[in-house]
């Protein structure tokens, strides 16, 4: 009788413990992502993003022309012109450096991809759309500079379905 | 005597196996519980002087990555 009890407890206990362990891992990934979001708010990076969006929107007509002519070089030059403003340049640097921490965190499953999409993707998307060409032009072959914002921008919107805690989503 | 010690051993093992996941789950639950807010020397945080229009995320009007022919960097991951 006791040996049956031991066997049953082992059979049931191991999956329960494993599920608990993986759930705790998932929870810590979400917490870590939320810490990044708190840093984003505390460092007032939203103000930086808004400033950069305003500067870009001021040139919306020129952007439209370059897009109509499929002129990527012209778009890059326009972004460089906008970023000659020291405030805008400093703002973009802060945002890019911030995402350079978030991106690898998600890519290596240390942060939660779904939480990152929910909290930090919109701003990354805006920055990649507006200043992606400039960031690419500043990247060095052996340096990770500027890669994080593209990682976060490449995250997909989570499917609304229940998932196992160990099924970490890919970053594309 | 031999059967008694084996019986005790089996009891201990099964009790340990039952208790381990329960303790582990309890510890994880305690970690998830919200921590009490810290008192900031009795004073509340000052309200922000920024308006909603200043703090709300702004969107770009013309999105190059949503154009018919988006630039190459849009697909970069």
Radius of gyration of chain A: 22 Å
Largest sheet of chain A: none
Strand content of chain B: under 5%
Q: How many separate helices of chain A?
A: 7
What share of the residues of chain A lie within helices?
over 70%
Overall pLDDT score of chain A:
89
Task: Report the principal-axis shape of chain B.
Answer: elongated
Residue runs with pLDDT of under 50 for 5 or more positions of chain B = 37-43
Explained architecture:
The complex is a heterodimer of chains A (172) and B (77). Chain A is mostly helical and 172 residues long. Chain A has one domain. Chain A has 7 helices and no strands. In chain A, helix 1 packs across helix 6 (113-138) and helix 6 crosses helix 7 (147-153). Chain B is built from 2 helices and no strands. Chain B is 45% helix and 0% strand. Chain B is elongated. Classes of the chains: A mainly alpha (172), B mainly alpha (77). At the A-B interface, helix 1, helix 2, helix 3, helix 6 and helix 7 of A face helix 1 of B.
Note the main attributes of this structure:
heterodimer; A: 172 residues; mainly alpha; 75% helix; B: 77 residues; 2 helices; 45% helix; 0% strand; elongated
Quick structural overview:
The complex is a heterodimer of chains A (172) and B (77). Chain A has 172 residues and is mainly α. Chain A is built from seven helices and no strands.
Task: Spell out the blueprint of helices and strands.
The complex is a heterodimer of chains A (172) and B (77).
Chain A lengths: L1 H41 L2 H13 L2 H9 L3 H11 L3 H22 L5 H26 L8 H7 L19
Helix pairs in contact in A: 1-6, 2-5, 2-6, 3-4, 4-6, 5-6, 5-7, 6-7
Chain B lengths: L1 H31 L19 H4 L22
């Amino acid at each position: 009788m006791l040996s049956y009890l031991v066997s049953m407890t082992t059979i049931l206990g191991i999956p329960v413990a494993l599920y608990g362990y993986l759930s705790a891992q998932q929870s810590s990934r979400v917490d870590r992502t939320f810490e990044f979001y708190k840093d984003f708010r505390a460092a007032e990076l939203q103000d930086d993003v808004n400033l950069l969006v305003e500067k870009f929107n001021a040139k919306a007509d020129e952007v439209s022309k370059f897009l109509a002519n499929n002129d990527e070089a012209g778009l890059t030059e326009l972004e460089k012109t906008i970023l000659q403003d020291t405030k805008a340049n400093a703002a973009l640097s802060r945002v890019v450096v911030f995402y350079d921490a978030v991106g690898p965190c998600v890519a290596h499953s240390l942060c939660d991809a779904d939480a990152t999409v929910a909290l930090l993707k919109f701003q990354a998307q805006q920055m990649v759309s507006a200043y992606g060409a400039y960031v690419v032009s500043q990247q060095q072959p052996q340096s990770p500079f500027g890669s994080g914002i593209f990682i976060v921008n490449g995250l997909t919107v989570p499917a609304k379905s229940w998932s196992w805690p160990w099924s970490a989503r890919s970053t594309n | 005597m031999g059967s008694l010690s084996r019986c005790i051993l089996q009891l201990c093992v099964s009790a340990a196996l039952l208790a381990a996941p329960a303790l582990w789950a309890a510890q994880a639950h305690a970690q998830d519980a919200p921590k009490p807010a810290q008192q900031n020397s009795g004073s509340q945080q000052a309200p922000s002087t920024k308006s909603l229009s200043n703090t709300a995320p702004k969107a770009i009007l013309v999105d190059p990555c949503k154009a018919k022919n988006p630039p190459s960097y849009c697909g970069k991951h």
